[in-house]
């Protein structure tokens, strides 16, 4: 299974995703520049955190027009796994691959800390977790307050699209305590927390590891990703 | 050249934490006569209308880029012809 | 563009006095260096290049005291940043920079551009920045303006570093009235490099290109470098603003492009330097001066953001996110292509020339024609007068304050809520401390620790300064600043390698201030020599005053240490029930300048006891050796608030408690004798640990399962729930920041 | 009650990286007819003018809170009487 880590101008967690996959999971992974137009040969797309284009308009709003985006949209529409964390989540919502939007935190401040999350294991990204398991993952964002209108929220609930919810405290004002969602088909996941920051005991937390293992497992089980 | 100001605001239903915080700060300063602060942003653009109709330009850049319809709405004003 | 004064008019109207040049300097330049009157542009160049910020003309005699070499130092002061060998052909690069004055005026942008500037210093050496630190000193949190400054400064540091993707992993924040109108905002950055990628800011080789890369030049920050000596005009009403605005997105692109150039195409590059204070002029003439070359620049080629900029404005602008490169002739297009790939412009603005002339052309005219060295090397060093401040003489002749403590529990609870001691989490949580996934220890410990990928190594880093001690006795205070930095590195399991500094003082023309500067450097030097921590880079910030009164003399020490094996990174929190607690170092009656004194008397006063550097160094070496052999479970050094606060802190965020018994009395519990540590050791390592330490340690108690702090003192007892103390400590600053005044 | 809109903009000489980046994005979208995007913010406030003169209120809250004179200037418009 071959992973693409997309690099936008201003991406800065690209190395983190790359290292989590390469060094920790021993997966086949390659950086792909925002200038590329194709994702041929890749089996999963990973959109990193950071500040694409400085986040000088809304977060992710400019990145959505990058050269690579049509290929990502096509990739997603083909049912292949697309994962976005933090700025990656924001880009996925701006690009319309995920519903809703991410607003400025209610505190109006950037917040970097570890938060408790409740996992829904019925997605291809979370299969290796227990259902309703409480895990801890770091967050680091200023604009992570998930918003969608009532109708969308209801759909997310009904379709089991809410992959992660803030469990103890809601750090940003997200509606329904949403920390991460998938698309309806379940092959696109966006989340504010950073699983790639939690894959090594040395850094104090391995709760994110199973997310990457789940993606790797998915390709083994279905075998359809190639 | 036409100067246009495009106003972008949160939709009514969307909670505006900034407005709330500023309202509190205004009251803390003793300005109880100020009731309800709402924050918005605007974009001033110059448009060369020989190339494209002004409304068309404004509509396109707003809807593609400047505004996120999940949260926001917009309005614009033609300011002056430069 | 307004018409510029002629050389004769300059001589008569003396605008240079406002730009920071003295009459004597002006005459020396005209008569001795040039043999003619300098024109408008030239006068501007001299006034910024001869400012303290660029020339260090006042502080140089003191700075010469610092040791700057040892077996590991690869690059000492004089380049963008210093470089130290860490083995495996790798090196660590670091430097600190102050942005006090810009932050006092415009706190968000001042702090943000401070971070931006120090990051450029690091990547201009060919190193990738891996972590940032800060050192912040504010007035007491009791005025709206101070709260505004704090919020904005902290937001600015986070705003820039977070966007760049460089984790901010450690720092310090203290509060004292003397910093009210003049906060200290010091930023430090640490980079990592392969030694083969080392770069220098040099422009050698006649015909080689001088290339400008990065943001366009505007009129921002003109005279920023000399701004320290001149008052900032109130420009409320005007449309003009000299404030620099940071663009971290631009800097991120610039960093990636520069690192690609230095790591993959070093053969195209002759030299690289960032444009910091005094923009193009300082970077270009320093590059020429270090290489003993001449340089010719055509200012029309400089990318400009505003129209009708004069030569003076172009040269003095302090627009951010710009770099100057010297590129081997024939590779200009190659270099342009690299920058183009990041959507950045690289422009040839001049050439290295034969001889030693600094020649600037603008709009077809020669606007400057002077020897390069006249700007960089010929600066008139002024011997400064020194005088011992009266308060120090008085203190020597009177007895020191001694605390009387009847209820140590209450004092402990109160001292944990003092802003300087209380948790800084509400600030540090707004910094991304984890990006780049190498942060082994982030804010909230003794030192930040960053692992070096692909090796077993890690780097420990800290910033420390304590203006109170330096105020009471600059020489001893200087020693203590270095001790504290070393202690924080050692506590984490690191070997202190070298240090950087920001020397923050008042007006050096005041003989008392100059004496403080000189004496404190002397004290720091003594400590550096004992600890083998040479000073490899640094920065001086003078004229820091609050209502006409100098701040406490506040040298900030930034230090980096090497942890040989990251597995032996030592936490500052207790680890397991039953572990034995030791106190290392003698506790003396050190109350002058302590947090206890400030809390109980509202003031600091008295004289300091000298420190035994050799003994402290011996203890540290033994402790480090015990750590490296795996005998130490946790370690925390003692600083503000003394043993009482240190013990309390070791239990926070754990579910454990402590039970200690010692011969100290309630007052001694809060004494701030430097160079002490609390260490916990698992019972099975007790013997080995004690053997390595060879005495000079005291066993004082045990880690307990019950989350309580129990202390039996010679005159009293303390018993508090950890949770209760932790809450007071955590909520103090958020509470102060919210309170209405 | 009077509704007032307070416009805050960067001073002319202040570097506006945000505006610059958005202008580039607009051009990348093919809207070459759009010349120069500048970003500003506005505050809509309701003022109870029986308590204090409107100008006085606006001036005070703007200068104390809403505007950073190092970088910004402001203007305001009385929108309507509510
Ligand atoms: N401005 C800041 N930025 C980053 N970290 C900070 C800042 N202020 C304090 N800290 C962190 O808070 C903790 C306590 O700081 P301090 O009391 O100065 O520690 P010490 O006494 O060990 O030097 C440290 O981990 C320090 O790194
Ligand atoms: Mg410490």
TrEMBL record, chain A:
Active site (catalytic residues): 86, 194, 196
* UniProt EC number: 6.3.5.3, 3.5.1.2
Q: Which biological processes are named by the entry's GO terms?
A: 'de novo' IMP biosynthetic process
Q: In which pathway does it act?
A: Purine metabolism; IMP biosynthesis via de novo pathway; 5-amino-1-(5-phospho-D-ribosyl)imidazole from N(2)-formyl-N(1)-(5-phospho-D-ribosyl)glycinamide: step 1/2
The protein's location, in the record's own words, is:
Cytoplasm
Q: Name one GO cellular component term.
A: cytoplasm
Alphabetical UniProt keywords: ATP-binding, Cytoplasm, Glutamine amidotransferase, Hydrolase, Ligase, Nucleotide-binding, Purine biosynthesis
**Which reaction does this enzyme catalyse, per its entry?**
N(2)-formyl-N(1)-(5-phospho-beta-D-ribosyl)glycinamide + L-glutamine + ATP + H2O = 2-formamido-N(1)-(5-O-phospho-beta-D-ribosyl)acetamidine + L-glutamate + ADP + phosphate + H(+); L-glutamine + H2O = L-glutamate + NH4(+)
User: GO molecular-function annotation terms?
Assistant: ATP binding; glutaminase activity; phosphoribosylformylglycinamidine synthase activity
Q: What does this protein do?
A: Part of the phosphoribosylformylglycinamidine synthase complex involved in the purines biosynthetic pathway. Catalyzes the ATP-dependent conversion of formylglycinamide ribonucleotide (FGAR) and glutamine to yield formylglycinamidine ribonucleotide (FGAM) and glutamate. The FGAM synthase complex is composed of three subunits. PurQ produces an ammonia molecule by converting glutamine to glutamate. PurL transfers the ammonia molecule to FGAR to form FGAM in an ATP-dependent manner.
- PANTHER family in the record, alphabetically? PHOSPHORIBOSYLFORMYLGLYCINAMIDINE SYNTHASE SUBUNIT PURQ
Query: Subunit composition?
Result: Part of the FGAM synthase complex composed of 1 PurL, 1 PurQ and 2 PurS subunits.
Q: What is this protein called?
A: Phosphoribosylformylglycinamidine synthase subunit PurQ
Automatic annotation (TrEMBL), chains B, D:
Gene symbol?
purS
Tell me the GO BP annotations in alphabetical order: 'de novo' IMP biosynthetic process
Protein name (record): Phosphoribosylformylglycinamidine synthase subunit PurS
Keywords of this entry: ATP-binding, Cytoplasm, Ligase, Nucleotide-binding, Purine biosynthesis
GO MF entries: ATP binding; phosphoribosylformylglycinamidine synthase activity
| Species the sequence originates in | Ligilactobacillus ubinensis
Subunit arrangement?
A: Part of the FGAM synthase complex composed of 1 PurL, 1 PurQ and 2 PurS subunits.
* Record's function text: Part of the phosphoribosylformylglycinamidine synthase complex involved in the purines biosynthetic pathway. Catalyzes the ATP-dependent conversion of formylglycinamide ribonucleotide (FGAR) and glutamine to yield formylglycinamidine ribonucleotide (FGAM) and glutamate. The FGAM synthase complex is composed of three subunits. PurQ produces an ammonia molecule by converting glutamine to glutamate. PurL transfers the ammonia molecule to FGAR to form FGAM in an ATP-dependent manner.
Keyword field contains ATP-binding: yes
Q: Which domain of life is it from?
A: Bacteria
UniProtKB/TrEMBL annotation, chain C:
Pathway membership of this protein?
Answer: Purine metabolism; IMP biosynthesis via de novo pathway; 5-amino-1-(5-phospho-D-ribosyl)imidazole from N(2)-formyl-N(1)-(5-phospho-D-ribosyl)glycinamide: step 1/2
Task: Enumerate the UniProt keywords alphabetically.
Answer: ATP-binding, Cytoplasm, Ligase, Magnesium, Metal-binding, Nucleotide-binding, Purine biosynthesis
**UniProt xrefs under InterPro entries:** PRibForGlyAmidine_synth_PurL (IPR010074), PurL_linker (IPR041609), PurM-like_C_dom (IPR010918), PurM-like_C_sf (IPR036676), PurM-like_N (IPR016188), PurM-like_N_sf (IPR036921)
Residues of the active site: 53, 99 (proton acceptor)
Q: Where is the PurM-like N-terminal domain?
A: 78-193, 444-563
Q: Which reaction does it catalyse?
A: N(2)-formyl-N(1)-(5-phospho-beta-D-ribosyl)glycinamide + L-glutamine + ATP + H2O = 2-formamido-N(1)-(5-O-phospho-beta-D-ribosyl)acetamidine + L-glutamate + ADP + phosphate + H(+)
The transmembrane residues are none
EC assignment: the record states: 6.3.5.3
Task: Enumerate the residues binding substrate.
Answer: 98-101, 120, 244, 318-320, 541
Keyword match Ligase: yes
**PurM-like C-terminal domain spans which residues?**
206-358, 577-712
| Residues covered by the Phosphoribosylformylglycinamidine synthase linker domain | 10-57
Recorded hits in PANTHER family, A to Z, give: PHOSPHORIBOSYLFORMYLGLYCINAMIDINE SYNTHASE SUBUNIT PURL (PTHR43555:SF1)
Query: What task does this protein carry out?
Result: Part of the phosphoribosylformylglycinamidine synthase complex involved in the purines biosynthetic pathway. Catalyzes the ATP-dependent conversion of formylglycinamide ribonucleotide (FGAR) and glutamine to yield formylglycinamidine ribonucleotide (FGAM) and glutamate. The FGAM synthase complex is composed of three subunits. PurQ produces an ammonia molecule by converting glutamine to glutamate. PurL transfers the ammonia molecule to FGAR to form FGAM in an ATP-dependent manner.
Assembly mode: Monomer. Part of the FGAM synthase complex composed of 1 PurL, 1 PurQ and 2 PurS subunits.
User: Which NCBIfam families does its entry note?
Assistant: FGAM_synth_II, PRK01213.1
* Name of the protein: Phosphoribosylformylglycinamidine synthase subunit PurL
Source species, please?
Ligilactobacillus ubinensis
């Amino acid at each position: 299974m071959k992973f693409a880590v997309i690099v936008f101008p201003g991406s800065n967690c690209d190395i983190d995703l790359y290292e989590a996959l390469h060094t920790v999971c021993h997966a086949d992974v390659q950086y792909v520049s925002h200038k590329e137009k194709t994702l041929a040969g890749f089996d999963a797309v990973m959109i990193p955190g950071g500040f694409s284009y400085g986040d000088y308009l809304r977060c992710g709003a400019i990145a959505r027009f990058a050269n690579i985006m049509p290929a990502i949209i096509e990739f997603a529409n083909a049912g292949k796994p697309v994962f976005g964390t933090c700025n990656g989540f924001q880009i996925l919502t701006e690009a319309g691959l995920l519903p809703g939007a991410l607003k400025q935190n209610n505190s109006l401040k950037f917040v970097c800390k570890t938060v408790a999350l409740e996992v829904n294991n019925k997605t291809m990204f979370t299969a290796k977790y227990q259902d309703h398991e409480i895990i801890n993952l770091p967050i680091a964002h200023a604009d992570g307050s998930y918003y969608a209108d009532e109708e969308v929220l209801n759909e997310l609930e009904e379709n089991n699209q809410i992959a992660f919810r803030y469990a103890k405290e809601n750090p940003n004002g997200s509606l329904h305590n949403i920390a991460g969602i998938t698309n309806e088909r379940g092959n696109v996941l966006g989340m504010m927390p950073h699983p790639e920051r939690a894959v090594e005991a040395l850094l104090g937390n391995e709760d994110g590891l199973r997310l990457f293992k789940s993606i790797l497992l998915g390709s083994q089980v279905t075998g359809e990703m190639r | 050249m036409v100067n246009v100001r495009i106003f972008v605001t949160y939709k009514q239903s969307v909670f505006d934490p900034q407005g709330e915080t500023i309202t509190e700060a205004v009251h803390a300063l003793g300005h109880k006569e100020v009731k309800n602060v709402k924050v918005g942003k605007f974009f001033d653009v110059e448009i060369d209308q020989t190339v494209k109709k002004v409304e068309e330009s404004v509509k396109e850049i707003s809807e593609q880029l400047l505004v996120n319809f999940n949260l926001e709405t917009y309005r614009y004003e033609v300011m002056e012809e430069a | 563009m307004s018409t510029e004064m002629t050389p004769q008019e300059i001589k008569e109207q003396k605008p240079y006095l406002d730009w920071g040049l003295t009459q004597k300097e002006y005459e020396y330049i005209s008569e001795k260096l040039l043999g003619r009157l300098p024109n408008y542009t030239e006068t501007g160049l001299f006034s910024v290049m001869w400012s303290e910020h660029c020339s260090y003309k006042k502080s140089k005699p003191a700075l010469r005291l610092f040791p700057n070499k040892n077996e590991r130092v690869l690059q000492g002061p004089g380049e963008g940043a210093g470089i130290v060998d860490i083995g495996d052909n790798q090196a660590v690069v670091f430097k600190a920079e102050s942005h006090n004055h810009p932050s006092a005026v415009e706190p968000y942008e001042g702090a943000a551009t401070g971070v931006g500037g120090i990051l450029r210093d690091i990547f201009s050496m060919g190193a990738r920045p891996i972590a940032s630190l800060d050192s912040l000193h504010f007035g007491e949190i009791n005025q709206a303006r101070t709260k505004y400054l704090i919020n904005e400064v902290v937001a600015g540091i986070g705003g820039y570093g977070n966007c760049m993707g460089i984790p901010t992993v450690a720092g310090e924040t203290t509060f004292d009235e003397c910093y009210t109108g003049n906060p200290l905002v010091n930023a430090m950055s640490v980079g990592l490099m392969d030694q083969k990628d080392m770069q220098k800011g040099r422009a050698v080789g006649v015909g080689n290109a001088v290339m400008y890369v990065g943001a366009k030049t505007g009129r921002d920050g003109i005279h920023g470098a000399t701004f320290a000596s001149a008052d900032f005009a109130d420009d409320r009403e005007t449309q003009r603003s000299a404030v620099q605005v940071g663009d971290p997105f631009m800097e991120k692109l610039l960093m990636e492009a520069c690192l690609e150039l230095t790591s993959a195409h070093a053969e195209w590059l002759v030299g690289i330097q960032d444009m910091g204070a005094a923009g193009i002029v300082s970077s270009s003439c320093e590059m020429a001066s270090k290489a003993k070359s001449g340089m010719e620049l055509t200012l029309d080629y400089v990318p400009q953001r505003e129209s009708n900029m004069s030569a003076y404005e172009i040269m003095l602008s302090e627009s951010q996110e710009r770099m100057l490169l010297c590129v081997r002739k024939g590779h200009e297009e190659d270099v342009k292509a690299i920058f183009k790939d990041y959507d950045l412009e690289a422009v040839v603005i001049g050439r290295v020339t034969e001889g030693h002339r600094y020649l600037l052309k603008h709009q077809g005219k020669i606007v400057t024609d002077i020897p390069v060295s006249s700007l960089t090397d010929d600066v008139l060093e002024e011997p400064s007068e020194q005088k011992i401040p009266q308060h120090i003489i008085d203190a020597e002749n009177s007895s020191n304050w001694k605390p009387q403590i009847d209820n140590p529990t209450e004092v402990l609870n109160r001292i944990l809520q003092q802003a300087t001691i209380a948790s800084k989490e509400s600030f540090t949580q707004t910094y991304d401390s984890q990006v780049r996934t190498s942060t082994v220890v982030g804010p909230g410990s003794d030192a930040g620790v960053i692992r070096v990928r692909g090796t077993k190594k890690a780097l420990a880093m800290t910033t420390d300064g304590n203006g109170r001690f330096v105020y009471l006795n600059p020489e001893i205070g200087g020693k203590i600043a270095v001790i504290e930095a070393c202690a924080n590195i050692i506590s984490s399991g690191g070997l202190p390698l070298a240090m950087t500094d920001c020397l923050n003082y008042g007006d050096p023309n005041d003989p008392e201030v100059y004496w403080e500067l000189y004496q404190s450097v002397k004290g720091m030097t003594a400590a550096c020599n004992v600890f083998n921590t040479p000073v490899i880079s640094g920065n001086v910030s003078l004229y820091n005053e609050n209502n006409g009164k100098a701040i406490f003399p506040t040298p900030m020490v930034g230090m980096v240490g090497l942890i040989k094996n990251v597995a032996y990174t030592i936490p500052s929190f207790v680890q397991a029930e039953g572990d034995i607690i030791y106190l290392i170092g003698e506790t003396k009656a050190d109350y002058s300048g302590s947090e206890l004194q400030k809390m109980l008397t509202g003031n600091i006063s008295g004289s300091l006891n000298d420190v035994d550097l050799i003994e402290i160094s011996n203890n540290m070496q033994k402790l480090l050796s015990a750590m490296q052999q795996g005998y130490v479970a946790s370690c925390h050094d003692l600083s503000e608030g003394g043993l009482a606060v240190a013990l309390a802190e070791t239990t926070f965020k754990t579910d454990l408690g402590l039970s200690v018994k010692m011969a100290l009395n309630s007052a001694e519990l809060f004494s701030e004798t430097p160079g002490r540590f609390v260490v916990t050791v698992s019972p099975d390592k007790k013997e080995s640990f004690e053997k390595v330490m060879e005495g000079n340690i005291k066993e004082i108690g045990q880690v307990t399962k019950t989350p309580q702090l129990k202390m039996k003192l010679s005159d009293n007892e303390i018993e508090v729930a950890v949770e209760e103390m932790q809450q007071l400590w955590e909520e103090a600053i958020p509470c102060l920041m919210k309170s209405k005044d």
